[in-house]
Specification:
The protein has about 400 residues and is mainly beta. The chain is about 5% helix and about 35% strand. The protein has a domain at about 235-390: L,D-transpeptidase catalytic domain-like. The strands form six sheets. It has a five-stranded mixed beta sheet with strand order 18-17-16-24-19, with no helix packed on it. A hairpin with a 4-residue loop joins strand 16 (about 235-240) and strand 17 (about 245-250). Pathway: Cell wall biogenesis; peptidoglycan biosynthesis.
Length: about 400
Amino acid sequence: MVAAAGALGGVLALTALGGNSYAATSGNGAGNQPKSQARVDQAAAQDASDARIKITPGQGAYNIGINDPVKVTVSNGKLTKVTMTATATGTEIPGTLSADGTSWKSNGHLERATRYQVAAEAEDAKGRSVTGNATITTVSPANDFIGHLSPESGSTVGVGMPVTVNFDKAISNKAAVESEIQVSSSSGQQVVGHWLNDHRLDFRPKTYWKPGSTVTAKLNLHGTEKTVTFKIGRSQISTVDAKTKQMTVVRDGKTIKIIPISSGSPEHPTYNGQMVISEKFRQIHMNAATVGLTEKDGKPSYDIKAVPHAMRLTDSGTFIHGNYWGADSVFGKVNTSHGCVGLKDVRGGGDDRLPAAWFFDHSLTGDVVIVKNSADKTTLAPDNGLSDWNMPWSEWVAGSATH
């Protein structure tokens, strides 16, 4: 799932360049595994619910009016649970479910410049459940401001989190706009902006932010002044070795855990490169059709309604997540996924002792995940999620309009 673009108040705008609520995900084993990849994926697709959830406004929407109700509807089924929470505070927004169970809407007004996450569950006539998620952001107090900044003010993030400003309109005079945005760190690191496209300006230092430092972004655009500060937490850099099928988690320079994983299969290898966790979801619906993976009959190669402990790494659908459908013999032994990194888990994600739950609970948005030794030969684009660190520093500086 791609995060909504944030408003001026510093609302989180983690991956605002497109995408949807679904992603590529792991399948079950190959070769000596008890079930083949195709059989597991086919079983998951056949078990898919007929119910279809629609959330309005949709995923990634921003500048939402504070008096406009958020609506959730379902076709071919009934809603069983809907929650809407402010991501920064965890405050739940009350809502009303219709008598027939087919629709829900929020009650009262929303807060300005606030990011909300909507999570819905529904069942079809056969009792098969489906989930839906959307992240939306309400309008900024300065409605004429054209930039949306992340991460949110007051947050604590990992050492890989860039400062991202997304613009509603293409920017032609980049130097003038960039000169009105200053980003600095208490560490004294030099911070430089880079235009990834006409709508997105990111800021980062040459190397990852220093742990424990404070980053300050000052904006003065269209007569609107705003200062956003956020803190860099401890350093956590996790390296996934697709060859050895192990992930090494390094906290503040020390290895704290080595986790067996299953990454992309030879047919669907995982990207190599430096990625950054941009969103965390305790459960998320993953459907292969949304990333172009379908069978000859047009059905999705997989449709898994509640993938646990999912953390987004790219806009194009790469996640690191829990895998409860893979045999124990997969992890650390066979790469079986459609491009994601799978960690051992249980259905529902309720076992805190397992690797997926541990990694989820010990990760921040902004933490770095590096993948190496994958068979993938493509270059991970810096604007695919928060993958800025894959660009050499000299090239990064060259993309500034003021340097």
